[in-house]
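# step 3/5: fold
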Amino acid sequence: MDVQCWDEMYRSHDQVFSGNPNGVLVAEVNDLPPGLALDVGCGEGVDALWLARRGWQVTAVDVSETALQRAAAADTDIKGRVAWARADLTTTPPPADAFDLVSIHYFPLRRQPGHAALRGLVDAVAPGGTLLFATHALSDLASRQEDGFDPADYYQPDDIAQLLDPIWDVLINETRPRIAPAPAGTHHTYDTVLRAQRLS
């Protein structure tokens, strides 16, 4: 979807998502010391707020101004801990070596020749930092002829793991049952998860 479609989606509902942080984020980040985090495709901001309330300084990025306004309205208790930013990280990469955590959950990251957008996100992880990528399992996704959606056009965690340089330690690369119920109107039952630490 383009920027206009994302804005229209958020404007069409008072709340699009559950209001709970992603289960993979909660499970995988609890053991990490707080630092600087990048929340890619932050939507209504629940993950960013969850991180900020646990001591992280968060840059939360989305293409939808509507989503960002909604997210910023909910951060009254953690003023100054989240920077809300409108940007398309698939065309404008974040700063390199800048974040202790780059969190990418259910973000539609389309495959590209040369993997420029993906490499921009991976390179944003600082030495010692963590890359956390989670998406719906391929077994739960189906092609849609009406809008041209093909799951094979998008990166899965295993694709990313195979592209990582030797400076990375892949800690988790697996498919697991979803912790939270699937969003209304969907049948997603499994997540695929990559957690990797940059060694240097």
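# step 4/5: annotate
The first helix runs from residue 3 to 11.
# step 5/5: archive (pending)
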